[in-house]
Amino acid sequence: MKKIFIILFFIFFNIFNFAFCEDENKYTNMDWWNSFNDKYLSENLEKLYKNNYDLKNAALKIKENEQMVKMQFAQELPFLSLTGELSRDFQAPRQQFGSMMIPKYSQYNYNIPLNAGYEIDIWGKNRLKTKSKKQQLEIIKQMERATYISLSGNFAADYFNLIKADKLIELQKELIDTQEEILSKTREKYNSGLCSINEVLEAQKLLTILKEEYNTHIKTRDVLIESLKVYLADENDKIKRNSFENTKLIDDLPLKYSSDIVLKRPDYIEQEANLKRLGFDIRVARKEFLPSFVIFGQIGLNAYHLSSLFNSPSQFFNAGILPSWDLFSGGRKIAFLKMKKMQYEQALNDYQKTYITGVTDINSNLIEYKTALENYKEVSNRIKTDEKIYNLIKDKRKIGSANDLDVLYAKEVYLSTKKQETSNKINSIICSIGLYKALGGINPYNSEKI
Questions:
Q1: What stretch of H or E contains 321?
Q2: Domain hosting residue 190, numbered range
Q3: Which one in 121, 159, 262, 359 has a CA-CA gap of 20 to 30 Å to 335?
């Protein structure tokens, strides 16, 4: 019988612990990130999930709340304790039974009781408290999920902004070289008396502006590198990244989503769990008005001489039921119940607001994604036109219908449009990441399967 009890205990213990086992990669969603076909992005995200301190703290918060659930669950079980006592009594001659007086004496007292107790959960109060703690655990899990989504999206956005900064630095350097040529040829024209000094000064001014923009792009790149190092928790790490030309544009996402997808967002599930938690708390607060019953018992040894500690007369046992009912608590329980009801009303308002906010967030990011794609398509068409003009002017120069300055001016226009194309392409990618975050970390390609 004892062996069966031990086996059942370990089975129950393992099942209880298994309930908290989670897949460590449950929130990474690498299928989505791999759709960018960027091995450096995938490698950096894997490192982010492994090293980031915020994610480590979020995981520890989960484990902390798992222990809180176990602590509360322990309140549903009986307790057993062993307390030993060795004391020496010094009694003055003040005890009297009728005419007989007990003389002064001193003696040792050996007491080894085994204490047991169990609160009979007649009203299910302790069970409701455990359910409340489980909902609190669910809230923390959704907060961890939101942390994964936020950090992944923010890191990816900075990563692609870094790629944009690299390309803009490259184009800006080319623009500066072109403007320096323009300045040189404008000076030659001025020295030949073919233009005024104002044209030279304007060329110098534009060159200064281009160099200022170049310095800004350098600063942006360096700041992004340092920011990404913080994400990866490695200040000495070199941020490996893709080239702009090999960056894939995500332009085939669904342009319409069901409002039901909001139900999968972590903030919505968090508010839903909070409602359930407060619902359990209200029921607990009501049951606090009812009496409680505790079964208690003691078994052990009690003797005044160590030699007789294990004799039959030294053995004792007592048991009983202890009812408890607060007849007056100064209004504390009523105030507690009202407070929980008010918290529930607030949570209900937040729950309804979260749904509306989620729908608005998805629609807003969807609009931004559509607009970014349209702008990228427009600038792509414009750059084709500017490229044709640039090539046409180069052909004219060959036949003497245009000069070197005309070619350089056309090149500047073409390079400026290339900068806008670079920004619009990366902005489109970042908007697709924003849509992923708004969908609650659900792969936008798989949204119809939800």
A1: strand 315-324
A2: 23-76+123-290+330-449
A3: 121
Are 134 and 190 contained in the same domain?
Answer: yes
Name the nearest CA neighbour of 49 among 164, 159, 144: 144
| Distance (Å) of CA 338 to CA 129, 170, 281, 332, 345 | 18, 65, 11, 10, 11
Has residue 4 been placed in a domain? Answer: no
In this structure, are 372 and 306 located in the same domain? Answer: no
Averaged pLDDT, 182-201:
88
Rg (CA), the chain: 38
Length of the chain: 450
Three-class secondary structure assignment of 121-184: CCCCHHHHHHHHHHHHHHHHHHHHHHHHHHHHHHHHHHHHHHHHHHHHHHHHHHHHHHHHHHHH
Q: 105-120 and 292-303 as β-strands: parallel, antiparallel, unpaired?
A: antiparallel
Specify the DSSP class assigned to residue 262: G
Nearest to 263 by CA among 359, 181, 328, 184: 359
Dihedral of CA atoms 197, 201, 202, 203 in degrees, nearest 10, equals: 100
Q: What is the pLDDT of residues 343-387, one digit of tens each?
A: 999 999 999 999 999 999 999 999 999 999 999 999 999 999 999
**pLDDT score of 297:** 87
* Rounded Cα gap, residues 408 and 201, in angstroms: 17
d(CA 363, CA 257): 9
Q: Taking a C-beta distance cutoff of 8 angstroms, is the pair 420, 379 a contact? A: yes
Verify that 305 and 436 share a domain, yes or no: no
Helix axes 53-74, 39-51, angle to 10 degrees: 40
Band the pLDDT of 144: cuts 50, 70, 90: very high
